[in-house]
Amino acid sequence: MSKTTLSSLSQVSNLCLLVNNDRELSANHALACQFGQPVAHALARLSALVHVSTAYCHCDREVVQEVVYPGKHDPHKILDTVAWMPDHILEEITPKIVSGQPNTYAFSKNLSEKLVAEYASKIPMGIARPSIGLHKTSKTPMVVNVTLSGDNPVTFGHVLEVGRKLLYDYPLEYPLWYPGGSMKSNKLLHDVCVLFFHFLPAYFIDFLLMVLGKKPFMVKVQRRIQGGLQMLQYYTTKKFVFLNENLHALKRSMTLEDQSIFYMNVNELDWVSYTKTMLLGTREYCLKEDPSTLPYARIHMRRMYWLDKVTTILFLALLIWLLRPIFSRL
């Protein structure tokens, strides 16, 4: 970036993010921690540096306030270690270093906040978890937890249940099976359902694909899905309390014009309508399925429904037949 460009900048947002959240520490994490602040410090017209963190960077705390917490690790020493240590050794010691955090993503975001705080007395800045908060005079950065807290709260279970019901009315064009399932509070029951309803069907589909001379892929897809779900379990099965007084204060300080542009009134959100919009948007813009295909997709979904019912009956009949000799001896 040229000096002319730098001299004309007045606002900087630091949004470094690694897609793979559960890998070992690396130089990429170091870059995500420290990129932005040195550049921002060199900007003559800087009016705001916004460091985008995450509300889950302090997972070891049940109640997360809008402050920068002290940590047990010096971020500069961690960055120095990552810079010189061979990758294979770093991979071995990563679990011990990030102890207390679910993965290296949360750990690096935790370190980033401490690094950002060091610049707070020198440049106007704020930490957003994950939106914007500014403070021009304080020697510590203003921290904003951009979370619902008690404002129109919604749970993962509610969103999943609403999303599943909407998927019956607005189905995908080529689903492999009829959507089902539910949240489980028992891990053993969850593992049994994963085995019978995820992996066994995946192996069966891959077997059919090999018989037809095609490349199998379903087991690989299921393993990737389960890997992602296991990483999310830490967040979705724990209860966190995020205080967001600074978020409300920021909203109150905005003019009516700014409030209309940067809409922040979550109390007016209808989560069913929101989830429907999200589903249709995912269908059209991510999966590239035209809305005109919905009538056919609904017909296909009804076929999948009856196929699911027939398969379930046949599976239960086979299970009873296999278990009949055992029960006959009792």
Automatic annotation (TrEMBL):
Catalytic activity annotation: a long-chain fatty acyl-CoA + 2 NADPH + 2 H(+) = a long-chain primary fatty alcohol + 2 NADP(+) + CoA
One cellular-component annotation, GO: peroxisome
Keyword Iron-sulfur assigned: no
Protein role: Catalyzes the reduction of fatty acyl-CoA to fatty alcohols.
Limits of the Fatty acyl-CoA reductase C-terminal domain: 197-289
InterPro entries, per the entry: FAR, FAR_C, FAR_NAD-bd
Transmembrane segments: 194-213, 306-327
Entry's EC annotation: 1.2.1.84
Entry keyword Transcription: no
Highest rank taxon of the organism: Eukaryota
Family, per entry: Belongs to the fatty acyl-CoA reductase family.
Swiss-Prot/TrEMBL keywords: Lipid biosynthesis, Lipid metabolism, Membrane, NADP, Oxidoreductase, Transmembrane, Transmembrane helix
Designated name of the protein: Fatty acyl-CoA reductase
An example Gene Ontology biological process: long-chain fatty-acyl-CoA metabolic process
Gene Ontology molecular function: alcohol-forming long-chain fatty acyl-CoA reductase activity; alcohol-forming very long-chain fatty acyl-CoA reductase activity
Thioester reductase (TE) domain location: 40-132
